[in-house]
Amino acid sequence: MNLNRLNRSHRVRVVLSSGGWGARVILMLMGMLIAALVVGCAGPRDAGPIPDAPVVAGTIAKALATGPVLQAIDLSDPLAPVAGTGAPIELLGAKNEWISFAVQVSNLPRLDPRRPLSLRVGALNKVDSPDVIPTSLFSAYHVVPMPVDVNRASFVRHTGLTVSDQRLPRAMLPAPVGDGGLINLSALQSVSGAKRDPGLTSLKVWIELRIPAPTRAGEYVARCDLLQSGKREPLGSVDVKLTVFDFVLPDERHLTMVGQLDWQSLREHYPSRFESITPRLMNRMDARYAPAVQAIDQLVKLAQAHRAQVVVPRLQPTVKWPSGQPPQVDWSDFDSLIGPWMKGDAFADNVGLGFWPLPEEEYLDRFDRASQLQYWQAAA
């Protein structure tokens, strides 16, 4: 490699043919070398000089000292969410596609019912026409840190960090979006435990939108404002820019992204609904199972709306094993449960799930090979 030539061009493209720990180390070393060679040189897309780090740090510190601060935040790296520097949030999406962004309110004051904080998400207005994507189509979620049980060896190998107890922003609790796109941050602050933890100083809010299929292509702009009762002017604002492409994503899924719902996890998260439930007896006709069915319905619908799907392997038919005869399989309860998901009747777009694993009878491994094959043939 001609380093003098590299230093003159300031344009480097590195391609690794295969991933791995060795490749990562090489990439890190090359990145350090390249950074040393091109430091201080603007790339072809730079809009202007980058402020010195002390200047940026001083500006942020000054803002934090004066009151709450609203910033865009990137949650791509859950171990170290990156707060924005004031630049607009730029989104790209096709019609019928989900888009999302996250904001963080830092330096929260103590809870004061007399002066509640709110986040106002403005409607998206088309730049060159009166077209509007209204706030009623937005959904918001409170991003809550959760203790995560990571595989220690894998965690160290993939992150290079020391093993410790980690609380990562993994859970999203629904945050109601009121009239005019208002989200009550004080209510979220209270739920987060600010009364018990005076040290709570920030909130993260995830905002998402499914771009309506009839939306006209083009540029849309909006603004998120941090408001406090008794003050006319926003405490802070973040601009949002959305580019809508001129094509529509079809409702049909051509790639199936599947995850599993573990039965033990359902019991742990919804003990009152699942502790006394026998999976093979669940159905939609018996009122005793209605709370459990409702919980699974909500999870399946949430995944399907976001073009993914979840399956519950423990759901199964009722099987009887008469002596000397093939197994007798009763599918009525099972079909009543997953039928609306497979046909699409349970979903707003009427698109059914594209995959469900053949259900395994709970005690199938206790039977001889011939009996097992008879069951699998009946299931297929």
Structure keywords:
380 residues; alpha+beta; Immunoglobulin-like; 3 domains; 7-stranded mixed β-sheet; 6-stranded antiparallel β-sheet; 17 strands; elongated; disordered N terminus
What does this structure look like?
- With 380 residues, the chain is an alpha+beta fold.
- It folds into three domains: 3-38, no CATH class; 68-248, Immunoglobulin-like, CATH 2.60.40; 258-379, no CATH class.
- It is built from ten helices and 17 strands.
- The longest helix is centred in the N-terminal third of the chain and has 18 residues, at 21-38.
Question: In short, what is this structure?
Answer:
The chain is an alpha+beta fold and 380 residues long. The protein has helices at 3-9, 21-38, 53-66, 152-159, 185-191, 263-269, 271-274, 290-305, 332-343, 369-379; strands at 69-74, 82-83, 89-95, 98-106, 117-121, 124-126, 132-133, 138-148, 166-175, 182-184, 203-210, 218-228, 236-248, 258-260, 309-311, 318-320, 328-330.
How would you summarize the topology of this molecule?
Blueprint: H1 3-9, H2 21-38, H3 53-66, E1 69-74, E2 82-83, E3 89-95, E4 98-106, E5 117-121, E6 124-126, E7 132-133, E8 138-148, H4 152-159, E9 166-175, E10 182-184, H5 185-191, E11 203-210, E12 218-228, E13 236-248, E14 258-260, H6 263-269, H7 271-274, H8 290-305, E15 309-311, E16 318-320, E17 328-330, H9 332-343, H10 369-379
Parallel strand pairs: 3-13, 14-15
Antiparallel strand pairs: 1-2, 1-4, 4-11, 5-10, 5-12, 6-7, 6-12, 8-9, 8-11, 12-13, 16-17
